[in-house]
Design a protein that fits this description.
By secondary structure, the protein is an alpha+beta fold. It folds into 2 domains: 80 residues; 195 residues, Bira Bifunctional Protein, Domain 2 (BirA Bifunctional Protein, domain 2), CATH 3.30.930. Helices cover 38% and strands 21% of the residues. The strands form 2 sheets. A 7-stranded mixed beta sheet has the order 1-5-6-10-9-8-7, sandwiched between helices. A hairpin with a 2-residue loop joins strand 7 and strand 8. The longest helix is centred in the first third of the chain and has 36 residues. The protein is elongated, with a radius of gyration of 37 Å. 28% of the residues are buried. The structure holds phenylalanine (PHE). The site of phenylalanine has 12 residues, from strand 8, strand 9 and strand 10. Phenylalanine (PHE) binds next to strand 8, strand 9 and strand 10.
């Protein structure tokens, strides 16, 4: 092929658009382009001419590349100039975030207890054995420790636990203040459980504690009834079933009348008319004494509930995993006004 001919067609090739530019590139510079072919033909050139011919091909390639690059830049400039700004065009909507359903429920619960004098207390998620277990009347090796499968972590020499409940925060409050105490402790807690629709390795609790002189079980029941009515409506009722927790004696589990069928029986309450919502009891005197509160003078009650559980009842969310998957389609449903 004639070098001069190719040079002439490089120089006369008209480039007016991006597709012309691409055709130019394929015809001359591509892997199967004419200039590549020239390098192939160099083999058959007599040795003494190889150097000079090689140089000519290099020059030709340089000319083609320069033309390609300069058109590339000028085409981009032309395109840029043709993009006029349309000031009348409506702007893009910015996405409005929403509160997480667990935050909404936590806020609602906290507000209810605020109204009857409870203040919020918070504490660390990584706890020592004393605050998570021993002070709460779980003696070492006591089988009750297995009620809550615990994640343990090393912190220097010390073995620490990811708190299994926010009762640990209440121990800290009792150690650091004097009765009367009225506090609620919201927070994230951890248990070593396989993740499924009904269980997760972390969830959220709100636990409450009331300590004063002459606090009775009747005070506990009335407080929880008030809470249930505020949260689920005036028609809500509660019932208490005997239970066991190491840190309370006596202990109870609390059911609220089914929020859907109001006790008639439906598949949400499994035709019992009742939904379990929390655990509670009178603070065991051993716990008061361990935290420096004289159990011969003071008594108190405590209760604890799972925020996910309450949210499940309020919003009918049946799979716990949805709360931590950050799926925008799920979260969007809680946008105000949606
Ligand atoms: N700490 C208990 C739990 O996590 C709940 C509870 C709190 C029960 C206070 C009774 C009194 O299971």
């Amino acid at each position: 092929m004639d070098l001069k001919e190719i040079l002439a067609s490089v120089q006369t090739f008209e480039i007016n658009s991006a597709s012309d530019l691409e055709s130019f590139r394929i015809q001359f510079l591509g892997a199967k382009g004419q200039i590549k072919d020239l390098y192939g033909e160099l083999k058959s050139v007599p040795n003494e001419e190889k150097r000079a011919v090689g140089q000519q091909i290099n020059e030709l390639r340089q000319i083609a590349e320069d033309k390609f690059e300069s058109f590339k830049i000028s085409l981009a400039q032309v395109q840029h100039q043709s993009e006029k700004i349309d000031v009348s065009r409506p702007g893009a909507d910015s996405m409005i975030g929403s509160h997480h359903p667990l935050s909404l429920v936590r806020k609602e619960i906290i507000e209810i207890f605020n109204r009857i004098g409870y203040v919020v207390s918070e504490g660390p998620e990584i706890e020592d054995d004393w605050h998570n277990f021993s002070a709460l009347n779980f003696p070492p090796e006591h089988p009750a420790r297995d009620m809550q499968d615990t994640f343990f972590v090393e912190k220097g020499e010390q073995e620490m636990a990811l708190r299994t409940h926010t009762s640990s925060v209440q121990v800290r409050v009792m150690e650091n203040s004097k009765p009367p105490i009225r506090t609620i402790s919201p927070g994230r807690v951890f248990r070593n459980e396989a993740i499924s629709a009904r269980a997760h390795c972390f969830f959220h609790q709100i636990e409450g504690l009331y300590i004063d002189k002459n606090v009775s079980f009747a005070d506990l029941k009335q407080t929880l009834l008030f809470f249930a009515k505020e949260l689920f409506g005036e028609k809500a009722t509660i019932r208490l079933r005997p239970s066991y927790f190491p840190f309370t004696e006596p202990s109870a589990e609390v059911d609220v009348s089914c929020t859907l069928c109001h006790g008639k029986g439906c598949n949400v309450c499994k035709y019992s008319g009742w939904l379990e919502i929390l655990g509670c009891g009178m603070v065991d005197p051993n716990v008061l004494d361990a935290c420096g509160i004289d159990s011969t003078v003071y008594s108190g009650f405590a209760f604890g509930m799972g925020v996910e559980r309450i949210a499940q009842l309020k919003y009918r969310v049946t799979d716990l995993r949805l709360y931590s998957e950050n799926d925008i389609r799920f979260l969007k449903q809680f946008t105000p006004g949606n």
